[in-house]
Amino acid sequence: MPLLTTAPRGTQDVLPQNSYKWQFIEKTALDTARLFGFKEIRFPTFEHTELFNRSVGDTTDVVQKEMYTFEDKGNRSITLRPEGTAGTLRAVLQNGLLNDALPQKLCYLVSCFRYEKPQAGRLREFHQFGVEMLGSQSPSADVEVILLAKSIFDTLKIQNIDLHINSIGCPKCRSEYHKALISYFNSYKDQLCETCQSRLEKNPMRILDCKSPVCSKIAAGAPVVLDYLCEDCQTHFDKVQSLLKACGVSFSIDPHIVRGLDYYTKTVFEFVSQNIGAQGTVCGGGRYDGLIETLGGPSTPALGFGMGLERLLLLLEQTPEAYPPEKRCDLYIAPLGEEATAKAAQLAVGLRQEGFRCEYDLMGKSAKAQMKYANKLGAHFTLVLGDNELQTGKAALKNMDTGEAREVDLETGVLSALYDEGIAQTIHNITQDIEHLMKEER
Ligand code: ATP
Ligand code: MG
Question: What pLDDT was estimated at residue 322?
Answer without folding.
Answer: 78
